Amino acid sequence: AQKITQTQPGMFVQEKEAVTLDCTYDTSDPSYGLFWYKQPSSGEMIFLIYQGSYDQQNATEGRYSLNFQKARKSANLVISASQLGDSAMYFCAMREGSGTASKLTFGTGTRLQVTL
Amino acid sequence: EPEVTQTPSHQVTQMGQEVILRCVPISNHLYFYWYRQILGQKVEFLVSFYNNEISEKSEIFDDQFSVERPDGSNFTLKIRSTKLEDSAMYFCASSELESPVTNEQFFGPGTRLTVL
What we know:
The complex is a heterodimer of chains A (116) and B (116).
Chain A: E1 4-5, E2 10-14, E3 19-21, E4 24-25, E5 32-39, E6 46-52, E7 60-61, E8 64-69, E9 74-79, E10 88-96, E11 105-106, E12 110-115
Parallel strand pairs in A: 2-12
Antiparallel strand pairs in A: 1-4, 3-9, 5-6, 5-10, 7-8, 8-9, 10-11, 10-12
Chain B: E1 5-7, E2 10-13, E3 19-24, E4 31-37, E5 43-50, E6 53-57, E7 65-68, E8 75-79, E9 88-95, E10 106-107, E11 111-115
Parallel strand pairs in B: 2-11
Antiparallel strand pairs in B: 1-3, 3-8, 4-5, 4-9, 5-6, 7-8, 9-10, 9-11
């Protein structure tokens, strides 16, 4: 089974609108972290937002918020007031457990295109 | 703001040649990672490194790969005899805290390796 599933290969959104990028995860470890990264066409990986499995509230960072539904094992990224510069690939990732140097497992990504 | 740096940004090599990809992690970070991303695919974990030894490695990280921290600042990935399928973007990342479940990994800009 895939650890991270992103079912939307591509999404379109109009400028200034909000958009939700889906992410579901699979783990039996009670301690884990969920991350979203943005990858523009230039290729670098830009950290956006983090949600810990024990966090009581949904994470927010500026225009980014994470809709964390633990029972459903989903961690959707919400981008409000989309801008043209938001056009990029978006990856959901998970770190499991509390071991040292735990790896990130990534989903296949969603390509977001913001239109005028 | 401190950042992870990688050199070179693009490396072209012939099949069977050795390559060394270089990374300078953020100076007070303790954990180091290499990931790769084949064009159009998801980011995959290769190896993590802590306290001068490998913490974890994936099945991709076979005997052709090695990592080293030759001095106090550099972290290198060596591929002994490159294959066509090694062509990918290679990302170095580093993280700081003792509690890696909650900690962000900072990614470098990547090295695009092209094997001809």
